[in-house]
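Sequence design from tokenized structure. All designs in this work follow the same two-part layout: the structure record, then the generated sequence. An example of the structure record is given first.
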């Protein structure tokens, strides 16, 4: 072994050592990557992919959701205006009303004319027709109590922008994770297919879709 490395040539000994060291390092690296792959794909399939996919779907649904709420409004509204009132109506006397009105009496057969006053008393509950023509000022505080149904789509609010960015961020990541092998068996199948030059079902689907486009 010493003779193989040394051969009385320092440069040749260094090259032999470098080759052996590189081989050992590459072998260890491949072994570590294999162990990591065996542990990584089940972890990604069982933990990371459902988590990221759930976040992606949740953000997409939140961007399409609406805020639905019933708001109870209790307040007072000032109302001030002038109400013109013009109409005919009947009024009923609440008490007797005495009237003293001027009157002219014409006597028959040229007997002449007599001017005087007539005293009349209108009894209680007498119905009199009345024509109203007046302006009624209105200045009041009116209490209101309403139940207002509110439906606000989130995509019409300022929250739409951050939700859309989250969907754009998690969408490609979800697609990438879903394209990874689901377990070690699928990983080995893909490796074998890659070595033998065969396409997996997913790769064939992607190729077909690309040709159709």
């Amino acid at each position: 072994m010493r003779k193989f490395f040394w051969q009385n040539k320092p440069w040749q000994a260094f090259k032999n050592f470098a080759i052996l060291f590189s081989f050992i390092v590459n072998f260890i690296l491949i072994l570590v990557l294999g162990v990591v792959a065996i542990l990584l794909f089940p972890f990604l399939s069982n933990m990371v992919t459902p988590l990221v996919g759930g976040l992606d779907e949740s953000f997409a649904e939140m961007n399409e959701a609406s805020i639905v709420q019933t708001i109870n409004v209790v307040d007072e509204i000032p109302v001030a205006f002038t109400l013109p009132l013009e109409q005919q109506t009947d009024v009923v006397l609440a008490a007797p009303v005495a009237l003293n009105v001027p009157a002219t009496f014409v006597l028959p057969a040229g007997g002449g004319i007599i001017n005087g006053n007539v005293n009349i008393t209108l009894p209680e509950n007498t119905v009199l027709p009345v024509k109203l023509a007046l302006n009624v000022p209105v200045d009041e505080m009116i209490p209101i109590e309403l139940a207002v149904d509110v439906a606000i789509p989130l995509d019409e609010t300022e929250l739409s922008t951050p939700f859309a960015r989250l969907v754009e961020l998690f969408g490609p990541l979800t697609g990438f994770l879903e394209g990874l092998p689901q377990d070690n068996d699928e990983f080995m199948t893909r490796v074998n297919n890659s070595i033998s030059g065969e396409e997996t079902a997913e790769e064939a689907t992607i190729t077909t879709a690309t040709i159709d486009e």
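The longest strand covers residues 66-92. We note this feature because it recurs in several other targets discussed in the main text.
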